[in-house]
Amino acid sequence: MKIMKPEFDTFHDLLDYLVCIELRKKKLWEEEIKRLPKGSLFCCERSDGVFYYHCFNGRKVGITRDLDMLYALARKKYLKTITSAQKNNIKRICNILRTGKYINSPMSEGEQLLHYYGKLGLDILRITCNKKQYQWAKGNFSKNQKYPEQLVFKTYSGIKVRSKSEKDIGNALEVNGIPYRYEQEIKLDIGWMKGVSGGTMGAYKTYYPDFTILTFTGEYIIWEHLGRVDLPDYRAHNMEKIAAYRQSGLVFDHSLILTFEHDLRSKSSLARIIETRILPYVD
């Protein structure tokens, strides 16, 4: 597994880079909008379901079954919404650079739109990610097959997870256009654990991180949410897993993110983790 290396020496460097990212994204989004179909998407919620229409030149054509057109128009509206908000995003980052204080921002129009689409049942990753990112996130990969009955929560994009907190993390990643895989299998060398949990020199053990996030360099960020640290067996297993991650070169707050229930006490706390620890490293 390729481990992502930290690239920023100071918080100032990080925020400065975020400004550059925002400007680059704005240019790319404006170019993509020109290539997307003309017209707009109209959503109609009825007692017998949700129906979608393509509005263009005064006409309204049903496209509920035309998923390619539906998602192209949904992405167009999303891109137009967030592009218009870029000026405020850049201003906010510059204020942080000037004052040194992180300022929680209210939910943007783009986020509100995506939460709305998600509640309608649309696959948010298909709207927020480019084709390559989406194919990676939704492609085939070896995943955890244990206790499938525990996968009772669904993210906006239909990915099944084991807890409400993981659902919140998944939804937040999807709304921010961050491709991820849930419980993807990785094998780590635990030879250094000789005498611990039966480890032997050269031995490998399989782990299933909660979220594996793809960065723009093709490397990965691992996000583990530790929701049941009140259970002794759970603590012991995760202490071993975290030790294996660290020994393999993952760096806290860069290529390795650890959160607890308290860290997700508010949406702004979750947003700050994503904005400062993930967004600078993804497209």
Structure write-up:
- With 283 residues, the protein is an alpha+beta fold.
- The chain has one domain.
- Helix content is 43%, strand content 18%.
- The protein contains nine helices and eleven strands.
- Strands 6-9-10-11 form a four-stranded mixed beta sheet, with helices on both faces.
- Strand 10, helix 8 (232-247) and strand 11 (256-260) form a beta-alpha-beta unit.
- Helix 1 (11-35) packs across helix 2 (67-84), helix 1 runs antiparallel to helix 3 (86-99) and helix 2 (67-84) packs antiparallel against helix 4 (109-120).
- The longest helix is centred in the first third of the chain and has 25 residues, at 11-35.
Summarize the structure.
The protein has 283 residues and is of the alpha+beta class. It has nine helices and eleven strands.
Helix and strand topology:
Elements: H1 11-35, E1 40-46, E2 49-56, E3 59-62, H2 67-84, H3 86-99, H4 109-120, H5 124-128, H6 131-138, E4 153-154, E5 160-161, H7 164-175, E6 180-182, E7 186-189, E8 204-207, E9 211-214, E10 220-226, H8 232-247, E11 256-260, H9 267-277
Parallel strand pairs: 10-11
Antiparallel strand pairs: 1-2, 2-3, 4-5, 6-9, 7-8, 9-10
Helix pairs in contact: 1-2, 1-3, 2-4
